[in-house]
Amino acid sequence: MTSEPAGAKIYLYDRYTGLVTPPATISGLPIGTYAIGLSSEDETLIREATVLPDTVVTYEFRFKTD
Quick one: CA dihedral 58, 34, 65, 2, positive or negative? Predict the structure, then answer.
């Protein structure tokens, strides 16, 4: 996962993973669909991420900037 701007905290089902962008990888998740959230100082973005076998998917989050 990446974010623009960098430095977003990464959440998996509302639990902080201890990871911060840029970039960050969550590995070892079983096949399925997950709620991934990235949080900056002013905004939180949530997306649904699908984990497939032997596949790496890149998710980019863009926060509003003034």
Answer: negative
- The domain containing residue 50 runs over which residues? 2-62
Distance CA(53)–CA(23), nearest Å, equals 21
Q: Domain total for the chain?
A: 1
Termini Cα distance of the chain? 22
pLDDT of residue 23 exceeding 80: yes
Cα–Cα–Cα angle for 43, 44, 50, nearest 5°? 150
pTM of the prediction? 0.83
